[in-house]
Amino acid sequence: MDIETLTNHIANLGKSHFDKACNIVLNEVFGYNALNIDGSYDGGTDFVSFSDGSRESVAYQVTTQKSDIKNKAYNDAKKSIEKLSVNKYYFLPTYNLSEIDQRLLESTISKELGINATCLSPKIIAGLLLNSGKLNRFLDLVGYPLPRQHGNSVDIKERALHGYNVFSDDSAKLKFSVYEDTILFSLYGKSLSEEDLINSVIVFLNLDNEKYEFIKKRIGGLFGKSLIKKEQNGLLALTDKSYLDLSNRQSIYEIELKNLSSAQTDLLKDKYNIPWTSDESKKISFWIANSYIFSQL
After folding, report:
1. Backbone angles phi, psi at 249, to 5 degrees
2. Strands (E), the chain
3. What are the pLDDT tens digits along the chain (297 aa)?
4. Domain containing 78: what range?
């Protein structure tokens, strides 16, 4: 199933089914032990997070409300501070706020209320379900007869190469983007020591060991941008913001790859009578991107 189809379904879910989608994201994707405290505020579904038997200062608001969304997010965040003394807040609506509205809302709540705020729109929730392989889990819980997920065929190298091209402003910035994005993609879904992370980047990009200190500095720069963090065990991991960004990148890549494959199949079949598969499209796009990127290093 593509992300747009799943996004439309999630945006139109009723309260019970939307709660299930959000619970999968909060508990199984982000790893929070979220406890449903429905009805404590104003009829929405509220969660607080617990870890190792003690309360964390994190709260979540899930809502199917379709109007006055921004005020609701702000007011619920304020109530979370007053009732739960939280310093981290997630807002999950079925209403599809634009990317700009989401960022502005997060900024307003963070600045005025002094907490770390994150808005997860239906598209982001859909992307997280797909990219984490949780679609079938969601479909089982809600009983929807929708196309099921049959594994994730997009590997780290494909995602990284696509990200270099799409998210680099210009060729002058591409070289730094290659190194920094490789660091980020190496941490996608796992934590590594700094030593292992640097070695992973060197192997991935086929670099000489003399690049060791340069990569180490790029890691420091990503700390400054709040894209990676150090966990209590000393390992390096992606921040929530960075994880969401990479998840969205993968979703965009999968959509564009599907469009490319369809166009190639139609062209080769109609004009040259040559059969063409999606795997062949992936190989061609990967070879082209691979050749271009590594010519820049």
Report:
1. -60, -45
2. 33-36, 45-51, 54-63, 88-93, 116-119, 228-230, 236-238
3. 678 788 888 998 888 899 899 989 988 888 777 655 455 544 345 566 655 555 556 788 888 888 888 998 998 888 878 877 777 888 999 998 888 888 899 999 999 998 888 899 998 898 889 888 898 899 888 887 767 766 544 445 455 554 544 444 444 455 567 788 889 988 988 999 999 999 988 887 777 888 889 899 999 989 988 899 999 999 999 999 888 888 877 666 666 666 666 666 777 777 777 777 766 766 666 565 555 555 555
4. 3-142
Does 148 fall in a domain?
no
Same structural domain, 134 and 168: no
Tell me which DSSP letter residue 148 carries: P
Task: Indicate which CATH number applies to the domain containing 254.
Answer: 1.10.10.10
CATH number, residue 107: 3.40.1350.10
Kindly report whether the global pTM for this prediction surpasses the value 0.85: no
DSSP 210: G
Do 46 and 161 fall into the same domain?
no
